[in-house]
From TrEMBL:
Source domain of life: Eukaryota
Parts of the chain that traverse the membrane: 39-59, 256-278
Keyword Transmembrane: yes
Protein name per Swiss-Prot or TrEMBL: Uncharacterized protein
Organism: Rotaria sordida
Length: 286
């Protein structure tokens, strides 16, 4: 029995391969004869793919709350400073830098509740030379790198004012540098990249402190250089947002569309193939 089953299996396999090869040749010939329909099939597949991508894009924009954050001003999210760091220091001292910094701090005091109006110039740009008690009082340190102590009017400031802004990292505004660089095992197996995008702890210091101070310093520089009062309400920022992690509208609210989509593709392909066969038979009977 075993000696007979081997040749039968081999013959059956060869028959299947022969029929499959004949079907491939037939489909190839039909494709060559009906080039327009073949191109239409390829285009139809791309249309279905574009439909899925379009649905994903529209659902992301219309339903995801993370993509519907309203425009905000840079200082709207600033937190009131309740720590011992309540002095804004700057270097070097000159009439130009003093005016710029004080105008910026005055604007912050008027628009951010609880913001300290303490401003002080330091004689040494090296912070390590300051005492520990002085370092603890630093809320912001502004170092103008291309304005010297001889500047006493707006005509003497350079066209591009350069400065560095340093701020404390205390409590909620701790930068958490050790969490910025993610290990591969974390985002592959533990948490998704979208989840990390939603987590704003690593950028909290920037959005709730640094961004607002930088914004008012820039406005103060423009106002001092041009002698034109700047409106703090004229600039709004748009948050692009992050993809949602658990709220997937295409999967949850429109999950019926995926099997329906594949069913439509199957039906269309089946109808086209049957049409090819019927038309070929009709041509042979003529």
């Amino acid at each position: 029995m075993d000696s007979l089953e081997g040749p039968k299996r081999h013959a059956g396999c060869m028959k299947f391969l022969g029929e499959y090869w004949a079907l491939l040749i037939k489909m190839f010939l039909l494709t060559k004869r009906k080039r327009g329909q073949t191109i239409a099939e390829f285009l139809l597949a791309y249309v279905f793919l574009a439909l899925l991508l379009g649905m994903r894009y529209l659902l992301d924009r219309n339903y995801y709350q993370a993509r519907q954050i309203t425009p905000f001003r840079p200082h709207d999210s600033m937190l009131s400073n309740s720590t011992t760091a309540n002095v804004t220091y700057y270097y070097p001292y000159s009439l130009c830098t003093d005016t710029i910094v004080r105008n910026a701090v005055d604007g912050l005091t008027q628009n951010v509740p609880g913001f300290s109006s303490n401003v002080q110039a330091i004689s040494d740009p090296t912070l390590s030379s300051l005492s520990n008690s002085t370092l603890e009082t630093i809320f912001a340190y502004i170092y103008f790198t291309n304005i010297d102590a001889s500047c006493n009017n707006s005509a003497l400031i350079p066209d591009q004012v350069q400065y560095t802004l340093r701020m404390q990292e205390n409590g909620l505004t701790y930068y958490r540098a050790q969490q910025v660089k993610l290990s591969e095992s974390d985002y592959l197996w533990k948490r998704s990249p979208e989840d990390y995008c939603q987590d704003n702890r690593t950028s909290l210091n920037y959005t709730t402190q640094f961004l607002g101070v930088q914004y008012f310093i820039d406005l103060s520089i423009i106002q001092y250089a041009t002698n034109i009062n700047q409106s703090i309400s004229s600039i709004y920022m748009y948050h692009f947002g992050c993809p949602e992690v658990y709220l997937d509208q295409l999967h949850s609210g429109f999950n019926f569309f995926i099997p329906l989509f594949y069913s439509i593709i199957y039906v269309v392909t089946f109808i086209l193939n049957v049409g090819y066969i019927v038309e070929e038979r009709a041509n042979k009977t003529k």
